[in-house]
Amino acid sequence: MFGRNAKSEIDSLIGISARIEGDLCFSGGLRIDGEVHGNVIAAEGPDHLLIVSEHARIEGEVRCANLVVNGYIAGTVYASELLELQPKGRIVGNVHYKLLEMHGGGSVTGTLTHQEGGEPVFHLAVAEASGA
Questions:
Q1: Extents of the domains making up the chain
Q2: Half-sphere exposure of 34 toward its Cβ, with a 13 Å CA cutoff?
Q3: Is the pLDDT of residue 12 over 70?
Q4: Are strands 77-85 and 95-102 parallel, antiparallel or unpaired?
Q5: Which residue in 41, 46, 58, 74 has the fewest CB atoms around it within 10 Å?
Q6: 32 forms bridges with which residues in the sheet?
């Protein structure tokens, strides 16, 4: 839509009955129908696509180039290219985006921050291991 140059092919699927505990890293296209309790991070680059279906639930940070949300995300969202928030899409957390397409019914509970073309939106943070 609107000149979207995202790869439209889905390489991987998290099924509706699947529940993932921990961070999920991917490249290409990923569709989530189930639950992820952890961060969902795409490889760097403009061609990666994440689809969060109306049945999906993510509790964690989401970082990708192109993101289509029709489910629920609780966490900070970074979309370096396009964020499409569909009618049943819900984001509870701050959102950083370059382009935003928001359908009627979609909602964000948090701040929306537009990132200009030259501003960094896609930094991978390296967590330090803590000793117990």
A1: 12-114
A2: 15
A3: yes
A4: parallel
A5: 46
A6: 14, 52
Predicted local distance difference test score (pLDDT) of residue 76: 98
Q: Report the alpha-carbon distance of residue 127 to residue 125 in Å, rounded.
A: 6
| Model confidence at 131: pLDDT above 60 | no
90-122 pLDDT tens trace: 999 999 999 999 999 999 999 999 998 644 444
- E-state strands within 1-132: 12-14, 19-21, 24-26, 29-32, 35-37, 40-42, 49-52, 57-59, 62-69, 72-74, 77-85, 90-92, 95-102, 107-109, 112-114
pLDDT above 60: residue 39: yes
> Two tokens at 21?
């505990």
- What is the amino acid identity at position 55? H
Full-model pTM: 0.83
Determine the Cα angle at 33 with ends 127 and 23, to 5°: 10
